[in-house]
Structure formats: structure tokens, C-alpha cells
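Feature request, filed as a ticket because there's no other form

It would be nice if the structure record came with a short human-readable summary line next to the C-alpha cells. Right now we just get the raw output. Example of a typical job, pasted below so the devs can see what we mean:
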Amino acid sequence: MRIEPLKLLPAGVDRAQSLVAPADEGKSFSQFLSDAVADVNELQQQSKQASIDLATGKIQDVSEVVVATEKATIALQLTMQVRNKVLDAYQEIMRMQV
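Raw output as currently delivered:
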């Protein structure tokens, strides 16, 4: 059984469509990591733009801004937790006796 990597999906993308797409088997771990960081950055930028649009009156629905902000916050928290786990694993490997 093959385990698919987790991906951040942009709003409006159907989850079933993303599962049908071919897997990126040629990518290295560093490429997956940099793609994930780029996705988190994009969500942060969308959240910032939604806040600016709300402040200037371009967006009337506050829930759009709240959803964009929560997506960015959760993505950032997930990224930080993954980073912490990777650092813990690295430190554990470095403490091993050879």
C-alpha cells in the first residue's frame, strides 16, 4: 500500500481531483520541503491581501478574511511542527554512539 504525501490544497480544489493526479515520484525531499514552504508563504500572502481588502472595503464578507487567516495560521503551525520534529530527529541521530 502506497502512502501519499500530504499536500496543501488551494481553496476551491476538489480533493478527489487531487488524488487522481499522478504522484510526483521524481521529487526529492528538499523539493517537497521547498514546495511546502512556498505554499505556506502563498497562504500568508493571501491572508495579508484579504485583510487589506477588508480594510479598504473591497471585501464585505468578514468570513472570507477569517477563513484565509485561519488557513494561513494552521499551515504555519503545521510547518513549525514538522520543522520541530525534523530537528528533534536530527539531534537524536547526532547523539547516537558510533
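Something like this underneath would help us a lot:
The CA atoms of residues 4 and 27 lie 13 Å apart.
The chain has a mean pLDDT of 84.
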